[in-house]
Amino acid sequence: MDKNQKLEFDVIVVGAGLSGSAAAAIAARSGLKVAIVERGQNPGSKNYFGGALYTHSLLEIYPDLWDRKPPLERPVTETGFWFLSKDGLVKATVQGGKVNSNPIDAYVALRAKFDAWWAEQAQKEGAFIIPKTLVVDFIRENGKVVGVKTDRDQGDIYAPVVIITEGVNNLLTQKLGLAKHDIKGDSAALAVKQLISIPAATINARFGLTDNDHGLAMSVMGDVSMGLPGLGFIYTGVDCVSVGVGVTLEALREAGIKPYELLQRYMNHPMIAPLIAGGRLMEYGAHIIPEGGWKDMPQLYTDGVLVAGDAASMVNALHWEGTNMAIVAGKCAAETAIEAHQKKDFSAKSLSSYRTRLDKRFIMTDLHQYRNLSHFLKTHPDFMAIYPTFINDALGMFFTGFGKPKGQLYKDILRSLTDRRPLLKAVGDIVAFGRTIIGI
Amino acid sequence: MTRRFWVYIEQEDGKAHPVAWELLGVARRLADEVNDNAVVEGILVGDNMEELAREAIQYGAQTVYVVDGPTFKNYLNKPYTTALSALVKKYDPEVLLVGATTLGRDLAGAVATSIGTGLTADTTHLAMGEVKGTVQKLLLATRPAFGGNVIATIVCRDYRPQMATVRPRVFTSAPRQADAKGEIVREVIPITPDMINAEILEFITNDAASVKLEYADIIVSGGRGLGGAKGFALIQELADALGGVVGSSRACVDAGWIKYDHQVGQTGKTVRPKLYIAAGISGAIQHKVGMQESDFILAINRDPHAPIFDVATMGIVGDLYEVIPAMIKEIRARKEAQHG
Amino acid sequence: MSETSDTQQNDLPKVFIDDILMSLKYFTDEHEAHLKIIDTQVCINCKDKPCIQFCPVGAYRTQDGGTVQIAFQSCIECGTCRVMCPPANVSWKLPRGGFGVAYKFG
Amino acid sequence: MFHALVSIKQVPDTTNIRIDPETNNLIRQGVPTILNPYDAHAVAAAVEWKRKLGGKVTIITMGPPAAVTSLRECIEMGADRAILISARQFAGADTWATSYVLSEVVKAVHEKDPIDLLFFGKQAIDGDTAQVGPGVAVRLDLPVVSYAVKIREVNLEERYVIIERKTESRNEVIKTSLPTALTCEKDIAEIPYASLPDLVYSLRYEPEVWNAESPITFDPALLGLKGSPTTVFKTGTPEKHIAGEVIKTEELGVDGAVKAALDKILGVEGMASILGVQK
């Protein structure tokens, strides 16, 4: 092979994450020559999440998913909300019924392992992975992007279309002028997580799981974030448990707290500590979640460029959706690139069909519907502090009000709310929240 | 048949490396563990070795085999390997111990290969023990592996000698007895010119070696609790008062307060001094693995929950900026009282 | 003066972040710091220095005279400091290809 | 033309190894395998001299098929040819059996393409034995310079090399005739940051695979576990340290605490003479 040959591909994908490797797989499957440029030592080594993956999106890329033996942890057979007060816990969780679908809707996964496998599948479709290489700029001809510049000597790679899936720190997207602004502190959260090793049998016993084919994915509200706009989570892997908490950057800075101490406080909570007792820290990490969604979405395409995944702010903060949006958007971007190659037209106009593809899917609809969520949380700073605690008090009182006149009990419960928030304002909060998630 | 427990007496410019005397001590113990007809003997290769041979006897060698001559003035792998291998073939020792120094490891690896026997490197524990399927007790050579996370005991069943290189400072030196009796046996190993395949052109003083953390008896280390580069002046003052050297945690090196040569820990140096003082060091695992083998660890930290106290022989909870000056004063006072 | 003497706010438990970071694998770039303070004087004048608190690996530390120093070796490339440094005084880049944090589990 | 051969090893990254507190077993899950760091510097040095003198660098490794990754990393740094020596029979080899296989391979490469310098890392971080390099050199009857920190000169016409090596107390400058074996410290050369074409070339590179029968044959009695004089008798975990007494300046006063600590230190046998202070 000649080392001096110009490096030329049909499609360059920047970043071997969920979105990038999905895009690369689809494009390569159609016969295009695809390069994935990944800055990590290996695909997956820079990637981090809570979390769970959604089966529908994986199947969309690989209908024969199960034959490929994906390195998933446990299926999510119980999910929902836990509401923490200072020393109590109310659970609103679902299992069986709709959650017991075939296949199960969601699986817990570890990204470093999963993404390495996910990239390997793209490689099997014919994509060429270039690891350990950072894309730093674009090659432009007549104002159009025709390739990327990397941080290595003789580091230019050419392709008529570049799919940017660079993740939340979208410096390249910004460099192209597609993003209106950098991530904003009030619409992005810093999530910190500890992965804790616990024997599978112990996990089953502590979380009430039948066996290793049952798993749990919980959003945890209330005391977990010390009243800051944020959420905790807890997920069960096969022999490990992920415990984490996310708080908006702005709130974190204003509160002046150390995120890892906030996490430790959550892990020390009397309702959480027994679940992870005796566990050993396997890995700590942190990542920013672009919760701004619709509001922070950059322009999704320009001449020779498409943007997908976290780089395009494709996150639904309330439903913890992001990975599935990233995968489906990656697929849409690849389809757009394939079409552009057929038309031999890589102009912004030609690539605008990417937007049409996304519009037809849940991605744009959902992101549009939840467009006001981060604004709501910003204008209702106490929302996460008041209600989870109230729920704990209310149910606690309801179930312990023996030997008391029940009329008084209901008054007490109501007072435990109105002590925190005047009734009218509380009703206003609920209505505003409802309007926010319905998308009015 | 006499069972010989051999110790290679490493020397440079006619001066023995202290590990040699440590090995004579442990060889004596091993020989006693098998008792019948076991002897401890030293091997000495160099130029003008007469005096050193007598010293080796004082440290417990019953016999010292000396290969002496200008050819052997400075260590070179080939002539030394040839000499040691020839002696092994002639006397068939049971055990051969070599210090796990740069020179010792270089020599031991070559000797083991040339005579075709097993060698366990960098051991930290030695014993003679029974192993299923063998009549005589074997050398159980124990060493850390996988970055110190595992210790493995290695045996060599079928080949002799059973060889091991041994970390300096793991065993205490044999006592020196001025009136010890022993025999010096001069051996002649012919070295033909074609066997001398290397030539030393010059010696250079190594600056990094001037920070001799690994061989220091006393180390005073500072951590992030010093609060800044200036804090190392105080650490140096205590080290001077004690006659020790200055160490550091990784945090201070990262911060640029002190040079890497001073770093103790997983990514720095592994030390095992007689006295290790950790001042303002929280005790991250990365630091602890590099110093926890020290004989005496004194930790000084304001936080009573600092993990350094878990490995400390003694801990002082207090402000190092109060404790260390007081300690310097006290040591100086005691020294003066002694000399004055 | 001790590193553990930071005043504790709220009821937060003390965490030894260095021990926690032992769980992480890094490929450290010995030749290039990807994070730099742009103007040291700006940090000296910054009263709150929130970076000391919000950095999830505690890479930001104060030194004598109120300067701020970054242990870029422990950075996990999250981006918080780029976004949240009040005077935007951090020159923030990603490490060169292959360097920086390498999650084993993710 | 200069020909360097570098023998490398793929090792578990020991900085990531942990012990399961319950079973005392090594936790291998999530432990990446890497090119032994000292070997990487040896490759870098070989490539540096190839670029100065013109010639080529050959890499060999004995290991499982997955060691291809490390060989590719060497190609990425600028090596030209890589050989993976891999067969079931080699498994379980100690340093003696390993040096046998490697020396036979070096001999075979040397016959067709004479070698000037034979590089090793000073030791592998999983075993830390530092024996394979000197072992191979002895088997091939080559001069060996261990703990090399700098190659000063390689003279292909007059067939000598001048190498600086580190000993405990000083550095030695040694001149030997070519071919010579050397084991390298990290100082020997910096790891180059490969150009993109070199990286891409390495990603597509397929190393030659040699097994126990082809292209050369080995004496089966000298291979693997069977050919190893040493065997692992048992393994365990290091002893845990027990925390000692903790005193507080708050309670004893600064001077009181200092005196108590010094008394305890000086109470240890031999400590008084080391410190030069009486008990």
Report on this structure.
- The complex is a heterotetramer of chains A (440), B (340), C (106) and D (279).
- Helix content of chain A is 37%, strand content 23%.
- By secondary structure, chain A is an alpha/beta fold.
- In chain A, strands 5-4-13-14-15-12-16 form a seven-stranded mixed sheet. In chain A, strands 7-2-1-11-18-17 form a six-stranded mixed sheet. A three-stranded antiparallel sheet of chain A has the order 8-9-10, with no helix packed on it.
- The radius of gyration of chain A is 23 Å and the shape is globular.
- Chain A starts with 10 loop residues before the first strand and ends with a helix.
- Chain B is of the alpha/beta class and 340 residues long.
- Chain B has a seven-stranded parallel sheet with strand order 7-11-6-1-4-5-12, sandwiched between helices.
- In chain B, α3 (77-91) crosses α4 (102-115) and α6 runs parallel beside α9 (320-339).
- Chain B is elongated.
- With 106 residues, chain C is of the alpha+beta class.
- Chain C has a single domain, classed as Alpha-Beta Plaits (2-Layer Sandwich).
- In chain C, a hairpin with a 5-residue loop joins β3 (60-62) and β4 (68-70).
- The longest helix of chain C is centred in the middle third of the chain and has 6 residues, at 40-45.
- Chains in contact: A-C, A-D, B-C, B-D, C-D.
- Chains B and D meet through α3, α4, β7, β9 and β10 of B and β3, α3, α4, β9 and β10 of D.
- β13 of chain B pairs antiparallel with β11 (170-177) of chain D, so a sheet runs across the interface.
Report low-confidence residues of chain B grouped into runs of 5 or more.
none
Q: Percent helix among the residues of chain D?
A: 25-40%
Number of helices of chain B: 9
The largest β sheet of chain D comes out as: 9 strands, mixed
* Largest sheet entry of chain B: 7 strands, parallel
Q: What's the architecture of the largest domain in chain B in CATH terms?
A: 3-Layer(aba) Sandwich
Q: Structurally, how many domains make up the residues of chain D?
A: 2
Major sheet: arrangement of strands of chain D? 11-10-9-12-8-1-6-7-13
The CATH class of the largest domain in chain B is Alpha Beta
Q: Report the order of strands and helices of chain B.
A: EEEHEHEHEHEEEEEEEHEHEHEHEEH
Radius of gyration of chain B: 23 Å
